[in-house]
Specification:
Length: 123
């Protein structure tokens, strides 16, 4: 069973920094896309940043220049370095991987979500 485990959320003051991590475990052949989404209270879930296997990235306009996504393929882990945090960055952050799982009958592509980690930006 493929699982994603997130860590790194918490309370931070405006202007501060946090780094989120998301590690995958299970029978994984490859991870094509690693992404971070967030959902603030009363709002829909939105894409924050995404990185594909070749290293190309894209970011939401609201976080460009402040957040950096990276990946460690050997560790099957994605990171989100968040700097210059603002109160409007407060949300539950979810990692999302598009990966190829090794199943009993072969390989299959799946989209897997982490459990979410709360980031609160407040003084």
């Amino acid at each position: 069973q493929v699982q994603l485990v997130e860590s790194g959320g918490g309370l931070v003051q405006p202007g501060g920094s946090l780094r989120l991590s998301c590690a995958a475990s299970g029978s994984i052949f490859s991870i094509n896309v690693m992404g971070w989404y967030r959902q603030a209270p009363g709002k829909e879930r939105e894409l924050v940043a995404r990185i594909i296997s070749g290293g190309a990235t894209n970011y939401a306009d609201s976080v460009k220049g402040r957040f950096t996504i990276s990946r460690d393929n050997a560790k099957k882990t994605a990171y989100l370095q968040m700097s210059s945090l603002k109160p409007e960055d407060t949300a539950v952050y979810y990692c999302n991987f598009v990966l190829v799982e090794i199943g009993r009958v072969g390989y299959r592509e799946r989209e897997v979500w982490g459990q979410g980690t709360l980031v609160t930006v407040s003084s």
